[in-house]
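Quick review question:
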């Protein structure tokens, strides 16, 4: 059974930083799978949207809104993924979800950016 657990959310002021962590259990990628892991977010009243994804070969995709501010990384041996978020802005406020191959999702962690 696959489990996806996020941590590291919280409240910060604009310009602050947070680092989200995602720990997984029971994940086994097929040999020919890109093994995509990543982060999506959902703000109140909005649809869930891509933040960043990373394959096990370290091919990375960022949403335009976070390029230059957020950085994604992973540990292939442990199937863990992190999201370093710098220069956070109020529009980054959302629940952040970790995903494995867009098939498995965590419960989400709240990120609030407010002065």
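Suggested answer, residue by residue:
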């Amino acid at each position: 059974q696959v489990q996806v657990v996020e941590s590291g959310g919280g409240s910060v002021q604009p310009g602050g930083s947070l680092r989200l962590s995602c720990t997984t259990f029971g994940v086994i990628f097929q040999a020919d799978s890109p093994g995509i892991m990543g982060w999506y977010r959902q703000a109140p009243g909005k649809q869930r949207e891509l933040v960043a994804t990373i394959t096990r070969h370290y091919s990375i995709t960022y949403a335009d809104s976070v390029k230059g501010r957020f950085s994604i990384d992973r540990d292939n041996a442990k199937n863990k993924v992190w999201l370093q978020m710098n220069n956070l802005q109020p529009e980054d406020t959302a629940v952040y979800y970790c995903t494995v191959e867009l098939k498995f999702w965590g419960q989400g962690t709240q990120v609030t950016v407010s002065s």
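Why it works: The first strand starts at residue 3 and ends at 7. The chain has a mean pLDDT of 97.
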